[in-house]
C-alpha cells in the first residue's frame, strides 16, 4: 500500500513541478503546459479547428506567445507585424532539427531549406542570386520552362480525353499536375529535360504524393513526439517518408553521374 501512496505523491509532485514551477521568464507568455501532453488540452478546449485554436489563444496571450505541443516548445506568431519583426532577426535563422526534418537530411546540416549556421550563411547569397537571375536575368528561360511544361500537360490531357470534344469522360487529376510542376523545377536545377528524365519525374511525383498523404495524420504526432516514428513507423508514415527521401537523393545522385559522363 505504501508503494502506491509513494507513486501517487511522486506523480503529483512531478505534475506540480512542470505545471507551476516551470521557469518561463525568458519565453513569451502562454498557457502553462502539462507533463507529457504539453498544451494539447488548451488547443482542444479552444476550438475543434487547429487554426482557430491558435487564434483564440492569441486573443488571450497576445500575437506572440509560447506553446508546448507534446515534448516540443514552440513560439506562435499570429500577425504580419510579428512575423516581420521576428523572422527578420538573425537569431531566428535556426531550423527545427528534430523528427522528419532531421530525417530529410539524414541528420546532417544540409540543403537550402534545412541548413543553418555557417552552412546557411554560405548558401544564402548563392540562393538569392540564383533566384534573382531566374526572376530577371533568366526570365526568358523560365518562360520557356513553363511553356514546355504546359504543352506537355495539355498533350497529356488530350491523350486522356481524346480529340472528340462532344464526348464527355472522367478525368483523374490526382497526379495530373505533378509531372508538369516537377519538370519546371527539374529544368531550373539541371538546365535541361530529356525523355530519359520522364521515369524519374514520374517516380518522384508518385512517391512525393504518397509522402504528403502519409504525413496528414502522422506528421503532427511525430512533430510532438519524435521518438514515436521509430515505435510505429508504418502507422505514422515514417517508412513511406524515408522511402521518398532516399528516392530523392538517389535520383539526384544518378542524374549527377549521368551529367558528369556527358561532360567527358
Could you write a compact summary of the structure shown?
This protein has helices spanning 2-20, 40-46, 50-61, 80-87, 99-104, 117-137, 139-161, 178-190, 198-224, 228-231, 238-263, and strands at residues 64-69, 72-77. By secondary structure, the chain is mainly alpha-helical.
Descriptive notes:
The protein has helices at residues 2-20, 40-46, 50-61, 80-87, 99-104, 117-137, 139-161, 178-190, 198-224, 228-231, 238-263; strands at 64-69, 72-77. It is mainly alpha-helical. A two-stranded antiparallel ribbon has the order 1-2. It is globular and about 75 Å long. The mean pLDDT is 79.
> Within the largest sheet, what's the order of strands?
1-2
Query: Can you write the helix and strand succession as a string?
Result: HHHEEHHHHHHHH
- Beta content comes to under 5%
Indicate the multimeric state: single chain
Unreliable spans are none
Quickly count the helices.
Answer: 11
Q: Average the pLDDT over all residues and give the rounded result.
A: 79
The total beta strand count reads 2
Residue share in helices? 55-70%
Distance between the termini: 79 Å
- Largest sheet report: 2 strands, antiparallel
Shape: globular
Structural class, please?
Answer: mainly alpha
The rounded Rg comes to 24 Å
Features:
mainly alpha, 2 strands, globular
Furnish the topology, listing elements before pairings.
Layout: H1 2-20, H2 40-46, H3 50-61, E1 64-69, E2 72-77, H4 80-87, H5 99-104, H6 117-137, H7 139-161, H8 178-190, H9 198-224, H10 228-231, H11 238-263
Antiparallel strand pairs: 1-2
